[in-house]
Amino acid sequence: MRSREESGADGQMADLTVAYATTLIVVGWLGGYFWLADRKEGRESRAPVQEMDVLVNRGFHPARVVLTGGRPIRLHFTRVRDGESWWDDLEFPYGRVRREIPEGKTITVDLGVLDPGEYAFFGGEGAIRGTLVVEGERDT
Question: Which is nearest to 129 in space by CA: 140, 137, 113, 118?
Fold first, then answer.
């Protein structure tokens, strides 16, 4: 027959094992839930990234960027040295990006996979404007 001390140690070990197993199950479930939610919403894609260069010189060139839906989007903004521009900001007002573009430098903006539609972007608090057009059906 076991002494009280021996059975107490076994009971504590069983409690710890149950606690660890429960923690692993909960963490695994949460990770799977959020991973699948990201894929379902189209945020994760194995498709190659679409890249486009945009020159910033008293406006955006091209002012209208047209890309395909269902693929990640990466834009490169290069601001030329003109010595006259008073602004240095870039903004996608739907909440994704607000960045500074130093004169003579290039910044890269990763937007991920976007739904089809038109997305405005601005510089100089709206003084110059551009449009990103995402064509095609959403990747499901």
Answer: 118
